[in-house]
């Protein structure tokens, strides 16, 4: 793969007419080392955030040994890249054939569930040809918890309600070699208290069921840094989770897991787009709602941007703040819905023929490209500069956060 120092160098070398994805392997490696060494338990990478085989290899090389996979295609991909990784099938609604292939062919032993029907499906799909039940299943019951502290809710679709959890935990305990409780507080949790609240719900479910628990999985939700969304340091999250985990009524040797997707992948990618047209404060660019900017269009996510003028200076910092202006974007398809409100702060002088680098697109960005309307093509190159923001460079001033937490 071609390697360049940064986005301006890519524009100078390629003058790209199609969007270009920029990979930053050093940033993903740094995030992996951070979780592998600082999270007080096991960190699983949630592959859905960015199912790039290159990224999965980088994470493995830097200490991530476990992978949260949610489809049989993700199981096959990760197993193909990493023959000895531990794969955990954490989607609570799976097809029987996917469970069977994962168990028999790819060595998956850990599955999540949130209903009695899913439990029975897992048991049937993993039984041997004589109908004997598998004796080595590691099963996680997913609880429904609040998403109130997170930017993207995951509270509606999956998870059993606290009131119904005890019978499912008891039934699962009967057949599981190892029993976990998992949940997801929603993506981009802006304060560690999201996990405190969820762990309290886990405590109530465990006490109600009166079963031995071997593992607590606090899921994903660990934030990254975006304009207007500056989270507290991740160490705050880890410390509070650990403290509350230690106080749970669980087996003395119970494990603590987490499943970060966004936090491990956001800094891996940015994107260069070309401005095709300007209409007042609206810029028509060549990626959008059906591409890597899916979240910018569908949930009004604000990503950081940087102007890359044709043949000019490339440093936003060099431009007087007074010359910056708020812009919205239209994507390349014929759809009115291909619109990203922003606002995206760019120099007032920006014009058709210029380029923009959109940062922090490694999570739920680069993975979202489709071929709708014939778009979605473009190069992928590697760059060596820093991402537009980072939770891992150690240069962050915790006072910048809106949600600083005292650990005393
Ligand atoms: C079960 C599960 N685990 C982990 C994740 C990753 O979440 P995040 O990217 O917020 O860390 C998701 C995201 O949808 C999920 O559904």
UniProtKB/TrEMBL annotation:
<feature type="domain" description="Orn/DAP/Arg decarboxylase 2 C-terminal">
    <location>
        <begin position="271"/>
        <end position="358"/>
    </location>
</feature>
<keyword id="KW-0663">Pyridoxal phosphate</keyword>
<dbReference type="InterPro" id="IPR022644">
    <property type="entry name" value="De-COase2_N"/>
</dbReference>
<protein>
    <recommendedName>
        <fullName>ornithine decarboxylase</fullName>
        <ecNumber>4.1.1.17</ecNumber>
    </recommendedName>
</protein>
<dbReference type="Pfam" id="PF02784">
    <property type="entry name" value="Orn_Arg_deC_N"/>
</dbReference>
<dbReference type="InterPro" id="IPR029066">
    <property type="entry name" value="PLP-binding_barrel"/>
</dbReference>
<feature type="active site" description="Proton donor">
    <location>
        <position position="334"/>
    </location>
</feature>
<comment type="similarity">
    <text>Belongs to the Orn/Lys/Arg decarboxylase class-II family.</text>
</comment>
<feature type="modified residue" description="N6-(pyridoxal phosphate)lysine">
    <location>
        <position position="48"/>
    </location>
</feature>
<dbReference type="InterPro" id="IPR022653">
    <property type="entry name" value="De-COase2_pyr-phos_BS"/>
</dbReference>
<dbReference type="InterPro" id="IPR000183">
    <property type="entry name" value="Orn/DAP/Arg_de-COase"/>
</dbReference>
<dbReference type="Pfam" id="PF00278">
    <property type="entry name" value="Orn_DAP_Arg_deC"/>
</dbReference>
<feature type="domain" description="Orn/DAP/Arg decarboxylase 2 N-terminal">
    <location>
        <begin position="32"/>
        <end position="266"/>
    </location>
</feature>
<dbReference type="InterPro" id="IPR022643">
    <property type="entry name" value="De-COase2_C"/>
</dbReference>
<dbReference type="InterPro" id="IPR022657">
    <property type="entry name" value="De-COase2_CS"/>
</dbReference>
<dbReference type="InterPro" id="IPR009006">
    <property type="entry name" value="Ala_racemase/Decarboxylase_C"/>
</dbReference>
<dbReference type="InterPro" id="IPR002433">
    <property type="entry name" value="Orn_de-COase"/>
</dbReference>
<comment type="pathway">
    <text>Amine and polyamine biosynthesis; putrescine biosynthesis via L-ornithine pathway; putrescine from L-ornithine: step 1/1.</text>
</comment>
<dbReference type="GO" id="GO:0033387">
    <property type="term" value="P:putrescine biosynthetic process from arginine, via ornithine"/>
</dbReference>
<dbReference type="GO" id="GO:0004586">
    <property type="term" value="F:ornithine decarboxylase activity"/>
</dbReference>
<keyword id="KW-0456">Lyase</keyword>
<dbReference type="GO" id="GO:0005737">
    <property type="term" value="C:cytoplasm"/>
</dbReference>
